[in-house]
Amino acid sequence: MTGYRQRDTASAWTIAAAWILATGTTHLMLLRAHYLTPHRLRALLHLRQRTGLHLSLVCHRAYLPVALQRVLVGVDCHPAEAAALLPAAEPSPAVQASIPHRPLANRWISLPALTTLRALDASPRPCQCTAPTAADMDFFPPVMPPVTEAEVAFRLRHATAHPHLAAELATAAFTAASTTQLDTAHVRDLALDASTITLHDEGLRLGCMTHHVPLWARSLLLAAACLWRIHSDTDGPLFSDPLANTDVPGLTAFAESCKLRPPQPPRPKQRRRRQGAKPRPKPPQKTIWPLCTVHYATPWPTSDQDLMEGCPPPPPHTRRTIAARKKGWLPPDYGPRRLDAPF
User: Fold this and answer.
1) With the C-alpha atoms ordered 141, 146, 151, 157, is the resulting torsion angle positive or negative?
2) Which residue has the higher pLDDT, 203 or 287?
3) Is the separation of the CB atoms in 161 and 224 below 8 Å?
4) Of 117, 221, 216, 113, which is closest to residue 167 (Cα–Cα)?
5) CA 37 to chain centre
6) To 10 degrees, what angle do helices 163-175 and 215-231 make?
7) Helix axes 215-231, 146-159, angle to 10 degrees
8) pLDDT, tens digit, for every residue of 291-324?
9) What is the dihedral angle through the alpha carbons of 332, 333, 334, 336, rounded to the nearest 10 degrees?
10) What count of other Cβ atoms lies within 10 Å of the Cβ of residue 322?
11) How far apart are CA 199 and CA 210, in angstroms?
């Protein structure tokens, strides 16, 4: 993997162990195991010891290679014929029928929660408080429709091998937190089952809050925590790499590679060109990441419109909409999906 020491595969095996533990993988079957070197075989057995995997090595030969026999000396294993372990092949429908349909594939997705990602202040000091829940603080981040949620989860699981990067962007998507708030999260701030995460704040915004983690993001945050526990067993920053990678992209650059961005300003109307004129090539559109002050407790001297650079503001989220929420009304992209009946 790029960004680590050359010819050092320990980082890749550590990341693989973190993903296996986070996703609850229990079985791993490896074909053509007779081609593996003794070094790779020992690494696989070490992975099995780290994660508790049920490892199956398939050799496409009538006998076990000598190198494999030497590595397996003293290992609790059971050689068997493949025909006795694998079920007989049965006719199945087309493979395409099992692939889920993705209506938003290859399309840009605008997430209102990412409007508040960029921050104006520095990271606060480490905090170990017992923070109230976001609902108790009358804070309801923008939610995603189920189709958008499924597509975002799919992209983050397949976009990178680094769990801390996928976990940080996922947390920004369901909490509407800024980069300074994300930097305050440590491994201790994540519940053991990844059901909640606490983000801290020195009072510049709405204060420290504990957010509910949706099901689609829990494996991503668990992988980031497992990476820290496997590597150093310390309570480090959750959204940082304990393996000290030097080639990880920034959070906004990673979001753009996943085609995720905040809502953009409306495009200017195109002028009609004369007949026979050659069409001008369109310049590549640059994603605007605004500086939004809607979450800040104190006003800033600059107006919101200048900081937003034409981007639409996020939906309302705090005290000004509490009365409307009690009456059963909320914008479609704000708060919980299921609202209480009007009073």
Assistant:
1) positive
2) 287
3) no
4) 221
5) 34
6) 140
7) 20
8) 888 878 776 655 555 788 888 887 765 555 555 6
9) 80
10) 12
11) 6
Q: Could you tell me the CA-to-CA distances from 299 to 120, 198, 205, 307 in Å, in that order?
A: 12, 25, 10, 12
**Six-digit token pair at 106?**
């290859």
pTM of the full structure: 0.83
CA 31 and chain centroid, separation: 30
C-alpha–C-alpha distance, residues 167 and 226, integer Å: 12
Whole-number Å distance between alpha carbons of 224 and 257? 20
Q: What is the pLDDT of residues 276-294, one digit of tens each?
A: 666 666 655 789 999 888 8
CA-to-CA separations, 95 to 31, 92, 98, 100, 104, in angstroms, rounded: 21, 8, 6, 11, 21
- Cβ partners under 8 Å of residue 46, min gap 6: 13
Tokens of 306: 């200048």
- CA angle (161 as vertex; 158, 167 as ends), nearest 5: 80
